[in-house]
Amino acid sequence: MKVTVTRSGGIAGATTTASVDTDALDADKAKKIEAIVARTSAASDQRAMVPDAFQYDVTVTDDKGSRSMRFHGDPCPAAELFAAIKKV
Amino acid sequence: MVYGDGDGRLMHDFTGAIDVVGHEMTHGVTQYESALVYLGESGALNESLSDVFGILAKQRRLNLDAASSDWLIGVGILISPNPLPTGVLCRGLRDMLNPGTAYRGLPFGDDPQPATYADRYAGSDDNGGVHINSGILNKVFATYAVAVGGNAWETPGHVWYKAATGAGLPSTATFAQFKAITLEVARQIDAATLPALQYAWATVGI
Question: What CATH code is carried by the domain that includes residue B47?
């Protein structure tokens, strides 16, 4: 599973991207990321357009195809996903 | 209202900077007085108003008139190598008078702000570039204030506040709509500053 999270906005307005291919990770790390992806996929964007909050654009590509989601604000599953990928 | 702790790698803690605090407080005012939708041009206007009243708070505090102000938002927030390598800039988060020149070559990146309407960001990051295209409107205000002279929180600040909070501003205001309102308000408050305001709008090509 390939996951890319692009974070933009925030008071500084800068864009930064984190991506990972879970197939290249060891099993428990891959499972952790995939669990957060599942939670992110089930979540809806509750907090659109809070001034100076981050915008997260998530793209997931697996054997089912490719899908994209957008979220605003912190905390949110996308924020967790971004942090988790950066840590890997 | 969102501040930030900074991550200690790219940015320091934000809450010490009066212009940042002013920026956030102004979002509160804008929400109730102007209700500008935080997307596209109305969102960039929302953002610019926060920088305008943020910088006025800083200038008032430091007693700096338009000519003496550095017009920089967020000085000291970005972490930079010390000493700075040649060609690397780290002056602040945003330069209101010269958008796009606040920082360059940092781990954080390069200042993405355009200085003219023709160069505006048209993508979908950052709610349609609200922190990016705000630079265009910031330049209008800073240029107007420098051209008028004296304290920016006087006539220019009054014009901007009335334009931002008046009944005529739609929540989906475009830059062109905001321009028309600023000209009308300037005419009412101090028509002698109209040439300076028209000049300021012309420098960004609106």
Answer: 1.10.390.10
At residue B111, the pLDDT reads: 97
| Confidence (pLDDT) at B53 | 98
Q: What is the DSSP string of chain A?
A: -EEEEEEEETTTT--EEEEEEGGGS-HHHHHHHHHHHHHHHH----STT-TT-EEEEEEEEETTEEEEEEEESSSSHHHHHHHHHHH-
Domain count, chain B: 1
**B158 among known catalytic residues:** no
- In this prediction, residue B10 carries a pLDDT of 74
- ipTM entry: 0.91
Q: Is A2-87 a domain of CATH 2.60.40?
A: no
Task: Please report whether residue B36 resides in a domain.
Answer: yes
Q: Is residue B2 part of a domain?
A: no
Sign, CA dihedral B81-B86-B91-B94, equals negative
For residue A57, the chain B residues in CB contact (below 8 A) are 124-125
Indicate the pairing of strand A54-62 with strand B72-73: unpaired
Over range A62-71, report the average pLDDT: 94
CB contact under 8 A, A49 and B127: yes
Does A55 contact B112 at a Cβ distance shorter than 8 Å? no
Domain membership of residue B108 (yes or no) is yes
